[in-house]
From TrEMBL:
Component of the 19S regulatory particle (RP/PA700) base subcomplex of the 26S proteasome. The 26S proteasome is composed of a core protease (CP), known as the 20S proteasome, capped at one or both ends by the 19S regulatory particle (RP/PA700). The RP/PA700 complex is composed of at least 17 different subunits in two subcomplexes, the base and the lid, which form the portions proximal and distal to the 20S proteolytic core, respectively. One of its GO terms (cellular component) is nucleus. Residues 24-246 form the RPN1 N-terminal domain. It comes from Trapa natans. Belongs to the proteasome subunit S2 family. Acts as a regulatory subunit of the 26 proteasome which is involved in the ATP-dependent degradation of ubiquitinated proteins. The lineage of its organism: Eukaryota, Viridiplantae, Streptophyta, Embryophyta, Tracheophyta. The keyword Isomerase does not apply. This is 26S proteasome non-ATPase regulatory subunit 2 homolog. SUPFAM superfamilies: ARM repeat. One of its GO terms (molecular function) is enzyme regulator activity. The keyword Protein transport does not apply. Keywords: Proteasome, Repeat, Ubl conjugation.
Length: 788
């Protein structure tokens, strides 16, 4: 018999025993490892290390409960993490450190080969972690990106955390002016106000150039260069969208009826269709010899009363983002005697300035004097215009102008409601106590009969927008809301909860909201509508939650009361905005023929929302057929027309999706605009089909070109080949897996659909942003050589 000569001492056998012993205790491996050797942990293989990590997690939580020392465990954790990081198992290292609450250790072990995979896993995992763990995980990812000079990724995490100090630090840490310009493009797309000071950029000329990018001054120019490249500059008319000649007799007859409501619908269709192009065939055609007063005047006066306001405001939509040209063309409406036309011009000024910041503050200069006028329509339009132009800016001058209106005893309810919305937009997500106080007092001052009005429900929304996505910060205000009149109290609770947890994916809040929707209440209760929208608002954060929310909403359709069924189509529209999923499309198509006209209207508008800016042919056919089906119902036909305008928005170049940067960042102003429109749609007949149809213009806050425009170092458009395909989730995969599938190669500028991802198809240039969306600066690759 041959004896093996094993020089190792008894510790070797203890370690060996820790692998093979099938003892009853669940932590045998850990027990024997602690008793055994101090040698290399990896020599026993991956499976052993993985098993050990699991046992350490259990032992750690046990010791935490017993308050016993954990030093020996942490020594092992250090060894295991080092092993995992060297062997492409970053997710396992991160999981172990999360279990033992010591993520800071990661900083010692990341290097240039593994930091990207580590950060990708951290940011993906953060969506499924409860607070405050989600924030601490992102803070670590931010620090890692900063350590390795990946400033664009760090900036996106800083924006996700809404931490302006981090944003400032990124600017000061980076010395490259070109990279700073790329940061500015990302800030502009996110829609936040960020003032550069001397500490961030010392040179005055450079600072001015960067501030111009943040102010979005280049947006109109970039959008029009995309339109010229795709050859869609030719203006289109509403008739080009209706395609009445494709319908049989009855539908085509309705299309030619010249009624005020049909003209109003055509005004909106024309505004959405030609948004941002600067020319159309109804409002901007120059007067010629054959039509004395010019086409724009003719079209304007084909609308009645408040319809004229929407028609004049539509000029702002057509000239969207082009402030200089827009203001000069709208100016002619300021000098007439018709108050409705003046109101439309004021709103048009707000629309033109939407998402564009200007040092001269033209919107405040033009609109400021009109917010105290006696005429309610003029007053409302000036207030709405300020809300649109200064959304997200937290401008104190606007607060000083609008806050006194909330305490004005003579002001009508519609003025008060839209003032609250405008203040909510200007201070979106700021948790500003002063504004919150003003809206709370305005709510308390309303009489019981006023609180029963549909517009009164916009007051709690104005309050909710202040806390958009801010989670626990809403609690003090939510407590105050419990003292409100019972007519509005539950409605206010649901609205505050929905807004505060919007885009967080918080499962407990979704459960809470579903609980409220499950109750069968008497008629007259209005809080279940906001609860249904709240489910969509909270669950829209990530794909898994989104799919589950769609399934839950299907159940609500089957078992919910009528007021819930009316809100479900709108919630589906929000979940899949500018993203026409086939299953949701089919559900909405079914609901568009519902016996309850309010359900049908909501479903039709939502068909427009899910197809917004996509030119989706299937939705276009559905809506064309619906226009024939509802040719005798002016209300539903109006909704069908609005939906048709949305689907062909910007001739297919725009999106309403509030998410950007590969669905990582949520623009607060964009979401606020969409939510405001959806809340108005909860009472379609009183608001959208009444005289407040112009609230549809709140959607302009979310309108953005869905493009990739590559520019050179002088910020001039540069055409390069790119591969565009379906994005692939590569989290946790080792090596360098392909990030897109089923791609096609195009030359920039290109359009990106929801779920698309682009990558450069040439090595001649290096992109300054890892995510190719919007404006991307390219610099020449010094190592590139023209070879075969």
């Amino acid at each position: 018999m041959v004896m093996l000569n094993l020089p190792i001492g008894h510790t070797f056998y203890i370690n060996l025993f820790s692998i093979v012993d099938p003892g009853n205790s669940s932590q045998e491996s850990l027990k024997y490892r602690l008793l055994g050797s101090e040698g290399d942990i990896g020599s026993w293989g991956h499976e052993y290390v993985r098993n050990l990590a699991g046992e350490i997690a259990q032992e750690y939580s046990k010791r935490q409960g017993e308050e016993t020392p954990i030093d020996d465990l942490m020594v092992l954790v250090q060894q295991i993490v080092a092993f995992h990081m060297k062997h492409n198992a970053e997710p396992e290292a991160v999981d172990l450190l999360m279990e033992v609450e010591y993520l800071d250790m990661l900083m010692e072990h990341v290097d240039s080969t593994n930091f990207k995979r580590t950060c990708l896993y951290l940011t993906s995992a953060s969506r499924y972690l409860p607070g405050p763990d989600d924030v601490s995980v992102l803070e670590i990812a931010y620090m890692i990106h900063l350590k390795f000079g990946e400033y664009v990724n760090a900036l996106q995490i800083a924006l996700f955390l809404d931490n302006m100090q981090h944003v400032k630090k990124i600017f000061t840490s980076c010395d490259d002016l070109l990279r700073k310009k790329q940061f500015c493009y990302i800030l502009a797309r996110h829609g936040i106000t960020f003032e550069l000071d001397e500490e961030i950029v010392s040179d005055d000329g450079e600072r001015e150039a960067l501030q111009e990018i943040i102010n979005n001054a280049k947006l109109s120019e970039g959008y029009l260069s995309l339109a010229r490249d795709i050859e869609v500059m030719e203006p289109k008319t509403p008739e080009d969208i209706y395609k009445a000649h494709l319908l049989d007799g009855r539908g085509s007859a309705s299309a030619s009826v010249d009624s005020a409501r049909q003209n109003l619908a055509a005004t909106f269709v024309n505004a959405f269709l030609n948004a941002g192009f600067g020319q159309d065939k109804l409002m901007t055609l120059q007067s010629d010899s054959s039509s004395g007063g010019g086409s724009s005047g003719n079209w304007l006066f084909k609308n009645k009363e408040h319809g004229k306001a929407s028609a004049a405001a539509s000029l702002g939509m057509i000239l969207l983002w082009d402030v200089d040209s827009g203001l000069s063309q709208i100016d002619k409406y300021f000098h007439g005697t018709d108050s409705h036309v003046l109101a439309g011009a004021l709103l048009g000024v707000g629309i033109v300035n939407c998402n564009i910041k200007n040092e001269c503050d033209p919107a405040l200069a033009l609109l400021g004097d009109y917010v105290d006028k006696e005429d309610a329509s003029v007053r409302i339009s000036a207030i709405m215009g300020l809300g649109l132009a200064y959304a997200g800016t937290q401008n104190e001058q606007i607060c000083a102008k609008l806050s006194p209106i909330l305490s004005d005893g003579k002001a009508s309810l519609d003025v008060i409601a839209l003032t609250a919305i405008s203040l909510g937009l200007v201070y979106v997500g700021s948790c500003n106590e002063e504004v919150a106080q003003s809206i709370i007092y305005a709510l308390m001052d309303r009489s019981e009969s006023e609180l029963g009005e549909p517009l009164a429900r916009l007051l709690p929304l104005g309050l909710g927008l202040l806390y958009l996505g801010k989670q626990d910060a809403v609690e003090a205000t939510a407590e105050v809301s419990k003292t409100f009149n019972e007519k509005i109290q539950k409605h206010c609770d649901m609205t505050l909860l929905s807004c505060a947890y919007a885009g967080t994916g918080n499962v407990l809040k979704v459960q809470n909201l579903l609980g409220h929707c499950a109750q069968h209440l008497e008629k007259g209760e209005t809080h279940q509508g906001p609860a249904v929208l709240g489910i969509a608002l909270v669950a829209m954060a990530e794909e898994l939650g989104l799919e589950m929310a769609i399934r839950s909403l299907e159940h609500l359709l089957q078992y919910g009361e009528q007021n819930i069924r009316r809100a479900v189509p709108l919630a589906l529209g929000l979940l899949c905005i500018s993203n026409p999923k086939v299953n949701v499309m089919d559900t909405l198509s079914r609901l568009s023929h519902d016996t309850d006209s309010e359900v049908a209207m909501a479903a039709v508008i939502s068909l427009g929302l899910i197809g917004a800016g996509t030119n989706n042919a299937r939705i276009a056919v559905m809506l064309r057929n619906l226009s024939s089906y509802y040719y005798k119902d002016p209300g539903l036909l109006f909704c069908v027309r609005i939906a048709q305008g949305l689907v062909h928005m910007g001739k297919g170049l725009l999106t309403l999706n509030p998410y950007h940067s590969e669905r990582f960042l949520l623009s607060p102003t964009a979401l606020a605009g969409i939510v405001t429109t959806l809340y108005a749609c909860l009472d379609m007949k009183a608001i959208i089909l009444g005289k407040y149809h112009y609230v549809l213009y709140f959607l302009v806050l979310a309108m953005q070109p869905r493009m990739l425009l590559t520019v050179d170092e002088n910020l001039r458009p540069l055409s390069v080949p790119v591969r565009v395909g379906q994005a692939v989730d590569v989290v946790g995969q080792a090596g360098r897996p392909k990030t897109i599938t089923g791609f096609q190669t195009h030359s920039t500028p290109v359009l990106l659909a929801v779920g698309d991802r682009a990558e450069l198809a040439t090595e001649k240039y290096i992109p300054l942003s890892p995510i190719l969306e919007g404006f991307v600066i390219l610099k020449e690759n010094p190592e590139y050589t023209e070879d075969n």
